[in-house]
Amino acid sequence: MKQILLGLILLGAPATAQAGLCDGAQTQVEFNECTAMEAEDADVALNEAYRAAMAALKELDASLPVAERGAAAALLAAQRAWITVRDQTCIAQGYYFYDGTARQAGINGCLTLITQARTEDLWRLVQPG
């Protein structure tokens, strides 16, 4: 567990980021599994925010002259680029645990934190200001 906490610090994640679902993990395998579930939960929330943001930007586009439309297309391009950046960032951070059993938990924690931040950004597109 000490290695995991050290890894979370190295990843820039507060130790409390893993509190909750993973509190009962007794082994590294259990911790890896629960951090994977946290990352999946974060992805579900991200997809909800993305759908809402896309709907809002399509509505915005519809209110603009045809030649000025492009908000929804810009969000699609941004999201695709963001996914690549997120995934590659977390893979890179996983190298702090090269050949270690905590590697996947470190990657999962990174995915969760970055995805949660992006989810907040997307909700701000739905309700700007």
In short:
71% of the residues lie in helices and 0% in strands.
Notes on the structure:
- 71% of the residues lie in helices and 0% in strands.
- The chain is built from 4 helices and no strands.
- The model is unreliable at 1-18 (pLDDT under 50).
- The longest helix has 35 residues, at 28-62.
- The chain has one domain: Substrate Binding Domain Of Dnak, Chain:A, Domain 2, CATH 1.20.1270.
- It has 129 residues and is mainly alpha-helical.
Key features of this structure:
mainly alpha, 0% strand, 129 residues, single chain
In total, how many domains does the architecture comprise? 1
Helix share bin: over 70%
Name the shape in a single word. Answer: elongated
Q: Please compute the radius of gyration using only Cα atoms.
A: 18 Å
- How far apart are the first and last residues' alpha carbons, in Å? 42 Å
Count of extended strands: 0
Tell me what the CATH architecture is: Up-down Bundle
Average pLDDT reading: 86
Q: Which fold name corresponds to the CATH topology? A: Substrate Binding Domain Of Dnak, Chain:A, Domain 2
How large is the count of helical segments?
4
Biggest β-sheet strands, sense, barrel: none
State the secondary-structure class. Answer: mainly alpha
**Percentage of β-strand residues:** under 5%
| Low-confidence blocks of residues | 1-18
The CATH C-level name is Mainly Alpha
